[in-house]
Design brief:
The protein is mainly β. It is 0% helix and 26% strand. The protein is globular and about 30 Å long. The two termini are 24 Å apart. The relative contact order is 0.20. InterPro entries: Leu-rich_rpt, LRR_dom_sf, RLP_Defense. Keywords: Leucine-rich repeat, Repeat.
């Protein structure tokens, strides 16, 4: 299944997005999304593109980011993440653009 979900609203990333098991494209670029990325988002093993640039996201990236093994495009720029990039990012063997 080739699912795609785009949101365009201020607020937080809904926890329920982590239940979308067949999602391949999740774009939430250039919104007023704040808070942190819900940990269960990193369990969407089918995700190929995850766009979060130009939001107000904060916090650190968890090691679970490495669960996105099919990810090809990961765009996190223009947020205020802190800390180091988790070593588990090396699990993203399909990553083309980060």
């Amino acid at each position: 299944m080739n699912s795609s979900k785009r949101v365009s609203k201020a607020g937080i990333i809904p926890q329920e997005f982590g239940n979308l098991a067949n999602l391949v494209d999740l774009g939430m670029e250039d919104n007023q999304i704040s808070g942190s990325i819900p940990i269960n988002i990193f369990n969407i093993s089918s995700l190929q593109r995850f766009g979060l640039w130009r939001n107000n996201l904060k916090g650190s990236l968890p090691p679970e980011i490495g669960n996105l093994t099919k990810i090809q495009i990961l765009d996190l720029r223009e947020n205020t993440f802190i800390g180091e990039i988790p070593k588990e990012i090396s699990n993203m063997m399909e990553l083309e653009k980060c």
